[in-house]
Structures are given as C-alpha cells and as structure tokens.
TrEMBL record:
Localization in the cell: Secreted
Family from the record: Belongs to the glycosyl hydrolase 18 family.
GO BP annotations listed: chitin catabolic process; polysaccharide catabolic process
Entry's Gene Ontology molecular function annotations: chitin binding; endochitinase activity
Protein name listed in UniProt: chitinase
Domain of life, source organism: Eukaryota
Lineage: Eukaryota, Fungi, Dikarya, Ascomycota, Pezizomycotina
Main location per the UniProt record: secreted
Domain GH18 stretches: 1-197
Length: 197
C-alpha cells in the first residue's frame, strides 16, 4: 500500500492485469459501507495534481481512474470488509436483517459508483455457521439488486461486477452456501495465500 510499501496505484502495471481490487472499505455498526481512509482514498494530492474547486476525487481513487484511462479494459472493484471487519462481527450485523442488508448494499453501491469502480468485492472472512451462510447469500442478492437498480435508474446497460473473496481451505468454505452464492457473483476470488497459515 501507500504507507509502508510506498506502492502507488500508478505503479500497477495495468497492461499486465485485468482487474484491480481496491481494499478495503469499512462497514459501520449499522451496516453502512464507508471509506476506511478518506485521506488516502480521495484527499491525498499527488505531485501532478492541480488544486481545483469542487468535490473532486484525488488520492488512490483518482490514480485508479487515471490507470483506467491507460487501459480501457481494466476493471476496478471496491473490496468491502476484510479480516478486521469480519473479526469485529461487522458483517454479521450488516447481514442480520433485511433493513441492514439494504443499507449495506445501497451504501456500497453508492460508494463504488461515486468512485468510478466497476463493481464490488465482498470479503467476509468467513461465514461460520448455517445462519451466516444464509445471510451472505441474502447480502449478495441485495448487492446484485442494488447494482441492477442503479444501472436502470441511470439509463445504463452496464453490468457492474460482484465478486466474493473466499477461502481456499475446506475448514472455512465447508460452512458456506457456495451454490446459493454463485448466481449473484460474476467471479470468485480464492484466497489461496491463506493456506500457509
């Protein structure tokens, strides 16, 4: 990332990749999806930025947008959650009720589309029981519906992507309803790197 590694989005070799997953957006206690680091996401100025009035995006979001101008086939996805959000039970709260799922989906779609992303990656690590397995299916369905409604309301035929970061090890994926999740997903992002732990 931009802090310790000093790796900027403009350093991504976009001629060699098809998708960039930008992680992570946070989940608040009521299920609202929001920026985890507004300064890094949209406020931080790069050396080539000019000061402009208005609500312009800067930071990593602008750099990703500029990368997309160099590779028109590049897709960017906003990843929501991750280990920290999962560890603190924020997905459980966001997926618990119809109201909280709608809030999650609506706010996630708004943030992703405001930032010019091509979709969402849901990173819940990991549903651990039948109730949570059912809840992630319902959460993904709500996200798919929210993207489709957004596209219809904005006269777009664009299909926004919805993916899930999922475990590679059976001790975690055995608790998930993979067949139930699949109809709502465009692709699966298998976290094979977690197998070493």
């Amino acid at each position: 990332g931009i802090y310790d590694a000093k790796y900027e989005p403009q350093q991504i070799p976009t001629n060699s990749v098809t998708h960039v997953i930008y992680a992570f957006a946070n989940i608040s206690s009521d299920g609202t999806v929001q920026s985890s680091d507004p300064w890094a996401d949209v406020q931080r100025r790069s050396t080539n930025d000019t000061e402009e009035k208005g609500n312009n995006a800067y930071g990593c979001v602008k750099q990703l947008y500029l990368q997309k101008t160099q590779n028109r086939r590049l897709k960017t996805l906003l990843s929501v959650g991750g280990w920290s959000a999962s560890k603190h039970g924020l997905f459980n709260k966001a997926a618990a009720t119809d109201e909280s799922r709608k809030r999650f989906a609506k706010s996630a779609v708004k943030l992703a589309t405001d930032w010019g992303m091509d979709g969402l990656d849901v990173d819940w690590e990991y549903p651990s029981n039948p109730t949570e397995a059912k809840q992630i299916v319902l959460l993904l369905k709500e996200c798919r519906d929210a993207f489709d409604k957004y596209a219809a309301a904005n006269n777009q035929t664009y299909h926004f992507l919805l993916t899930a970061a999922t475990p590679a090890g059976p001790e975690n994926y055995k608790n998930m309803d993979l067949a139930g999740m699949d109809p709502y997903l465009d692709s699966w992002n298998i976290m094979a790197y977690d197998l070493c732990w």
